[in-house]
Amino acid sequence: MSDTTDETVSFGYQQVTPQEKTRKVGEVFSSVAKKYDIMNDAMSGGMHRLWKDRFVRRVKPRPGEQILDMAGGTGDIAFRMAARGAHITVADINQDMLDVGAERALERGFSEEDGSLVFTRQNAEEVTFASNSFDAYTIAFGIRNVTHIDRALKEALRVLRPGGRFFCLEFSTVEWSGLKEAYDLYSEHLLPRMGQAIAGDADSYRYLAESIRKFPPMPAFEQMIAGAGFANTRVEPIMGGLVAIHSGWKI
User: Fold this and answer.
1) pLDDT value at residue 33
2) CB–CB of 35/194 below 8 Å?
3) Distance from C-alpha of 152 to C-alpha of 178, rounded to nearest angstrom
4) What is the number of alpha carbons within 13 Å of residue 4 lying toward its C-beta?
5) How far apart are CA 127 and CA 185, in angstroms?
6) Cβ distance 108 to 138 under 8 Å?
7) For the chain, which domains are there?
8) What is the three-class DSSP state of 204?
9) Which stretch of 43-57, 128-142, 176-190, 212-226 has the lowest confidence by average pLDDT?
């Protein structure tokens, strides 16, 4: 993708410059950080907990492994993996989300001193870690907010060790008839109202709904993962593609 000044990318249904998207996404998550987990429960009826449990079972974190949890924000995925003995580096571009995650980690008894959980501010497109540093790379409900997804995928490949595994949990395209129409109505009309009522922010949740619709369908995103250099790519739809687990290996 070109770095010319006339380049634009999608921010929901708007076309904006890459710099503007990065800023706007940052504003969205700064706005909702303190209510993020409450809204996740409200938006999904608590189903997000089951999706995340299933995701971590697919990752199979092992004691002593080094795992980079990108866009890990409030720590939901990281806590589940650290409980299995893995050493988790929680990375996020948004400091407000990281602050909430670090506070939650202390409440759960995790400590950065023992190396089980570390929080660091990172841009997924330009990760500061050395190549071949991690056994696994996870990203849950974050890849669609990255400005240049292809760059983030290449960085994921770079920081993984040979034999390392990539796992992504993301909203996708609902393929079940009936559920698709119901979900479209819910996300377009009800979700912003819930955002206003619970988090005092309708616009941020309107953007989140729009970003889901703009995200590539499952086959297209799998091709992007393979195009970044991952092998043995796989996609596992959940609830007819409402969400999906994408995976690949560095060989």
Assistant:
1) 65
2) no
3) 34
4) 4
5) 37
6) no
7) 9-27+44-173+216-249 (3.40.50.150)
8) helix
9) 176-190
- Per the confidence metrics, is the pTM higher than 0.70? yes
Cβ-proximal residues to 207 (8 Å cutoff; 6+ apart), any chain:
11, 12, 24, 28
Angle at alpha carbon of residue 151, lines to 145 and 156, rounded to 5°: 90
Q: What is the pLDDT of residue 175?
A: 85
Tell me whether strands 243-249 and 231-238 are parallel, antiparallel or unpaired. antiparallel
Tokens 């609830």 belong to residue: 239
The most distant pair of C-alpha atoms in the chain lies apart, rounded to whole Å, by 50
Q: Provide the 10 A C-beta neighbour count for residue 133.
A: 16
All residues at 6 or more sequence positions from 2 whose CB lies less than 8 Å from its CB, including other chains: none
Q: pLDDT by residue (tens digit) across 160-213?
A: 999 999 999 999 988 888 887 887 777 777 777 877 777 777 777 777 778 888
Q: 108-117: list long-range contacts, CB under 8 Å, 24+ apart.
A: 108/79, 110/79, 110/82, 115/87, 116/82, 116/86, 116/87, 116/88, 117/75, 117/78, 117/79, 117/82, 117/87, 117/88, 117/90
Classified as helix, coil or strand, 10 is: strand
Highest mean pLDDT among 15-24, 34-43, 232-241: 232-241
